Q: What sequence folds into this?
């Protein structure tokens, strides 16, 4: 059996040979696009496997306190110095190393190619001390489900698991996101203002929705006037514009549109409670907004057919909101993860070609896939047309109102 030093030397030699090969300007001339793509994916999988291997070694290094000689302040300080890393990167590596002892099955799944190193970090974040026992019980089920999901859906699944795992169902008190919200603004020497901070998910959704809406207005204005600004410059201008509009708004001005949208399940918010962009929130985080909330009911028959949208106390554009609630993200077949609030509603069969404006001929698509003709999937077919009868809506309302436990994929973890 090769010694540890020999194994490390072999890895270094293989990586150096790979770097030398791909650095040649003509290395890809003999490769097809498919071979090049497969190579990229394989290298990223290998990166995850190597990350697990280095994490196991680092955990032994940390446990034996190899970093102590030399008077170093901490393990991160020694690792940062000798490996020429930033302290932040060293701290992240050590957090991973200190969690691997409780994530053996997850590490094995990464080595087997079923999960990535990002999944390992996601599970490590969820596996906090007050959840150790429950996570050990459910780890295999979480691995089995996440290996079949896209990354964004894996994040949502684990967030729901955390919410359900906590005893009160109201999230982890030690990680109260509202309490951790903070904003810092200070003047620099030249009079500019530096801003940094963190907002809770709902507060962040309110700010981002309005910030991006105004930034979009500025983008259209820049395009019409020929002004050249980066997206970051437009966002800075949008923030100032938000403050200007707030300062000049009438004292009794009526709120014209929802500040944020949250999807809540038909039985209990503990089974479905997330912002339109996909961020999972707890019922407790929503509670303070209930007094001013506008409630809208959208009834589905199956995953794709909208039966009705409530009219009472609702804003205009109910069909758009219904399609957004159904699709949740860009529906381009490439697997695009842009959330519905940032998407357009696209006519699958173009209106100019006789396509109707209906739920069956509508889908959410991000601006890139909707407006770039080269990337638009022009051969898509509408959903099967279905006539929605009043009896269908009545039956759905009865099902919606009847007390029951909904189907929940997280039940497999119990």
A:
């Amino acid at each position: 059996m090769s010694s540890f030093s020999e194994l490390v030397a072999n890895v270094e030699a293989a990586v150096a040979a790979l770097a030398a090969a791909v650095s040649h300007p003509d290395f890809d001339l003999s490769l097809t696009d498919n071979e090049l793509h497969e190579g990229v994916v394989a290298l990223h999988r290998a990166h995850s496997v190597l990350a697990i291997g280095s994490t196991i070694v680092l955990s032994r290094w940390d446990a034996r306190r190899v970093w102590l000689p030399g008077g170093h302040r901490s393990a991160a300080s020694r690792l940062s110095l000798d490996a020429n890393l930033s302290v932040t990167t060293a701290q992240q590596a050590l957090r991973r190393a200190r969690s691997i002892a409780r994530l053996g099955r997850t590490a094995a799944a990464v080595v087997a190619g079923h999960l990535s190193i990002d999944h390992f970090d996601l599970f490590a974040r969820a596996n906090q001390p007050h959840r150790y026992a429950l996570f050990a019980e459910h780890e295999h089920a979480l691995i089995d489900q996440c290996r079949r999901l896209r990354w964004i859906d894996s994040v949502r699944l684990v967030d729901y698991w955390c919410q359900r795992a906590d005893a009160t169902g109201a999230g982890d008190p030690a990680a109260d996101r509202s309490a951790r919200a903070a904003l810092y603004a200070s003047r620099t020497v030249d009079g500019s203002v530096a801003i940094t901070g963190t907002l809770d998910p709902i507060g962040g959704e309110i700010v981002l929705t309005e910030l991006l809406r105004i930034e979009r207005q500025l983008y259209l204005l820049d395009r019409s006037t020929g002004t050249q600004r980066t997206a970051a410059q437009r966002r800075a201008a949008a923030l100032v514009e938000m403050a200007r509009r707030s300062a000049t708004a009438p004292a009794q001005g009526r709120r014209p549109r929802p500040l944020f949208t949250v999807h809540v399940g038909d039985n209990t918010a503990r089974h479905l409670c997330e912002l339109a962009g996909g961020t999972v929130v707890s019922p407790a985080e929503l509670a303070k907004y209930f007094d001013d909330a506008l409630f809208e009911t959208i009834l589905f028959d199956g995953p794709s057919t909208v039966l009705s949208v409530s009219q009472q106390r609702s804003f205009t554009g109910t069909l758009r909101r219904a399609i957004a609630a159904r699709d949740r993200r860009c529906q381009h077949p490439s697997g695009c993860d842009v959330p519905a609030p940032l998407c357009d509603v696209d006519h699958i069969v173009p209106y100019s070609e006789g396509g109707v404006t209906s739920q069956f001929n509508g889908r959410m698509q991000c601006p890139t896939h909707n407006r770039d003709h080269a990337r638009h999937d022009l051969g898509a077919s509408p959903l099967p047309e279905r006539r929605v009868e009043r009896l269908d809506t009545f039956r759905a309302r009865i099902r919606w109102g009847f007390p029951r436990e909904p189907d929940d994929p997280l039940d497999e973890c119990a």
Notes: Residues 311-316 have pLDDT under 50 and may be disordered.
